[in-house]
Amino acid sequence: MKILITFNSVNFQIFGTPAYFLCAFAGFVVATSVYIVLMYSKRYDISQSMKILMISLFGLVLGAKIFGFLTGIYRNIGTGEKVTLETMLDTGIVFYGGLLGLLIVYMLCLKSKRYCLDKYAVDILAVCIPLFHSIARIGCFLSGCCFGKIYEGVLSINYITIINGNIDENMRFPIQLIEALFEFLLFLYLLNSLNSDRWKEKKLLVRYLIFYSIFRFMFEYLRGDIRRGLIYGISFSQCISVFIWMNLGFLYLRQYIISKRKGGL
User: Fold this and answer.
1) Which of 10, 98, 134, 246 could form a disulfide with 64 if both were Cys (CB 3.0 to 4.6 A apart)?
2) Cα Rg for the chain, rounded, in angstroms?
3) 12, 19 in Cβ contact below 8 A?
């Protein structure tokens, strides 16, 4: 037996503010607060930790927009349309781009002699990322973006959004809320791992990237928005997931070979 739930995301606002921006801001405040607490608990310098985080936000914004442009190109290739500046600019931001931009700048800062934080600080950042993302994904649901595919089974909701300038009303799978739940559970899992005395051996950033990329790859099949583009049924985000697997596999193989060589000496 299904319970019919209707949600109208068209022009939905909270206190006169677009829901996505409000949820993203709330997610940032909550995740940053947790980041500060965790950094303090692990005896890292809070001032330097925040400086690195604030600098890394430039990488986040830049990466999210660059990947937005790349998504536009990917979409046009998938539809066989000509790639133009207009179609490239007709895109939003992409989480994967923001994530990679944030991590790249953060790790570059850690390697700089200006800061006294060690390389494990990025593992604490990795714990906080899914917490931010879980709250932001609720904003996606409220704002009508990243919506699920048409579906009339268990958990389906009557979802109203705008597609290509027209109001669309269909029974859809609430993928945004499912992903928000997954992200929060991933946060709890990483937080529990961080509380271990041997947390530096657990490679929390690697664990985050593995779990998120695998589930993101699967979640993409449950999405119904075509704005992100598809080529042979594969989305741009799924390509990034595969790229992450390949890089993690390469790093693991490299580390394995190095350890074997050291063991043979």
Assistant:
1) 98
2) 20
3) yes
pLDDT at 114: 81
Q: Which residue has the tokens 């409000």?
A: 22
Q: Tell me how long the chain is.
A: 265
What pLDDT, in 10s, does the model give residues 117-163?
889 999 999 999 999 999 999 999 999 988 999 999 888 999 999 98
Angle at CA 216, nearest 5°, toward 88 and 183?
115
- The amino acid present at 257, given as its one-letter code, is I
The H or E element containing residue 8 is strand 6-8
CA torsion angle for 5, 10, 13, 16 (degrees, to 10)? -150
Q: Would you give the distance in Å from CA 220 to the centre of its chain?
A: 13
Q: What is the DSSP string of 21-59?
A: HHHHHHHHHHHHHHHHHHHHHTT--HHHHHHHHHHHHHH
Whole-number pLDDT of residue 140 = 93
Give this prediction's pTM: 0.91
Within 40-192, strands assigned E span 157-163, 166-172
- pLDDT given for residue 264 in this prediction: 52
- Rounded mean pLDDT, 184-196: 96
Look at residue 158 in the predicted model and tell me its pLDDT: 95
CB-based contact 160:141 (threshold 8 Å) = no
